[in-house]
Each structure stands twice: as C-alpha cells, then as structure tokens.
Design a protein that fits this description.
The chain has 260 residues and is mainly α. Helices cover 75% and strands 0% of the residues. The protein is globular, with a radius of gyration of 18 Å. The two termini are 23 Å apart.
C-alpha cells in the first residue's frame, strides 16, 4: 500500500477501501502493470532494450514460473529500474492464487502490446491508432477489472463499456501530459487533431464509462469505479479551463462527496 500511495494518488484511495482479497488482487494488478509501464516510459533505456525486457516479461507471465522468471529478467537492471519495477515478483506474490490467472493473462498481453508500441515508435496517425494504443495500456485494464469483479462476488459488467472506462482515464492522462510527452518525442494526438478533438474523444469515452458504472450493482466494484471516474471528469473540466492537475484538497473533496 505504501508503494501504491507513492505511485498513484488516483488509485490508492479506491483500492485501499476494497475488502480483503479483492484489495490484494487489484493492488497486485495495478502494481504489476505500473512496473512494466515504467519500462515503457523510461527515459534512459534504449528502445531495443525496452522491447527485450517487455518481451521477456511477456514470456515470464506465460510461463508456470512467473516469480523466478521475472526476477531473472530484471535483476541485471537493478541500478536503472525503479523499485516498483524491481519488485514485480512481489506484486505477483501479493495476488490471491485464484485471481492470479486473470492478472497474469492480462500482464502477458499488456507487456506484448507495449513492446510492439515501443518497437514502432508510438506512431499514432488515426483515431483507430489511438484506440489501439489506449486499449493496450488502459482499456484492457478495464476488462481485467471486470473479470476481477466477477471473480470476487459474481458482479457482471459490460466488457465493451469496461474498455471505455480504462480508455477514458488514459485519455485524460494524454490531455494532461501533452507537453511532457512532446518533450520526450511522443505525440499521442492523431494527425490533424488539436486539444478540441482530444477533449471530445476523452469525454466520449468517459460518457460510456458513466454508462458502465450505471450498470453495476451496489457493491465494491461500483464503489471503486466511482472515484477515478469522478476525478477524471473533474480533471477534464479543469484542463478545459486552463488548469492541469487537481489539488490535493480538490481530490479529497470529490472522494468525500462520493464516499458518503
């Protein structure tokens, strides 16, 4: 939970409020995915090495020896990779054994798709390209969460809308990190798109995400999803008025309002 708090203010709060069992499963999934995200975004690693590491992690999560294989892959890079990545095997061990097949399947898939995006230089020219990218790094997280809700207490949800839930949250990040991404030579906006088009894309996916949570029964899944979605809507509204990041007070106000 300490690492979770360090790496994500948005997800720390809803994850920490989950019941035992589901909390470990979602924490494990989030931290595993954050671990490989740090490889994809690493500023010092050369792209061929990123591809090699991500492909090796993909293979590790497809093998029956995930813990040993991930340690073997990452140990030579202890000096350059952040703690959240070096502790990938610990996040895997955190997951309840019956939920781990879900998490490991999505981890293998995400590592493979991230490797492909690095290999092709994150070239996004069309809205279809953007859809593929946002699916690779976030839409499939929505799918995985839907499977974890069902694993936990049988909660059923719409997988297509679940993709939009993840995709919408990622699109908010793309809007928010625009300048930072361009500085590192990555442009997630399709050809001819400006702020207006990306904002429309983001809001369209967040609207579908609203429909996703409207279908959820009362319970931990609904309670969890409400918080990041409300923060995403608030962030888009702030960005549209020229701001960039919600203050800690603004976050707490939104969380308190939703949690009542």
């Amino acid at each position: 939970m300490t690492m979770l708090k360090k790496t994500s203010r948005t997800f720390y709060i809803p994850i920490s409020q989950l019941d035992l069992g589901l909390r470990e499963a979602v924490s494990s999934a989030y931290l595993c995915m954050r671990a490989i995200d740090e490889i994809e975004d690493h500023e010092q690693l050369e792209d061929p090495l990123k591809v090699q590491l991500l492909m090796s992690i993909h293979e590790a999560f497809e093998s029956p020896h995930v813990i040993e294989e991930t340690q073997k892959v990452l140990s030579p890079y202890r000096e350059v990779l952040p703690d959240v990545t070096m502790q990938l095997h610990e996040w895997s061990l955190l997951c309840p054994t019956t939920a781990f097949p879900i998490v490991s399947r999505y981890m293998a898939k995400m590592a493979l798709e991230m490797a492909e995006w690095v290999q092709h230089g994150w070239h996004i020219h069309t809205e279809e390209d953007l859809d593929r990218y946002t699916y690779s790094v976030a839409g499939m997280v929505g799918e995985m969460l839907s499977e974890l809700w069902a694993w936990n207490d049988g909660t059923q949800s719409d997988l297509t809308k679940a993709v939009a839930f993840g995709r919408g949250l990622q699109a908010v990040n793309i809007l928010r990190n625009r300048e930072e991404d361009l500085k590192r030579g990555v442009d997630f906006y399709p050809d001819g798109w400006g702020f207006k088009e990306m904002q429309q894309y983001t809001r369209r996916n967040l609207d579908i995400a609203d429909a996703y949570i409207a279908d959820l029964k009362e319970g931990p899944a609904l309670k969890f999803c409400k918080i990041p979605l409300a923060l995403a809507h608030a962030t888009v509204n702030l960005i549209s008025m020229g701001g960039s990041k919600l203050t800690r007070d603004a976050v707490l106000k939104i969380v308190n309002r939703i949690s009542k």
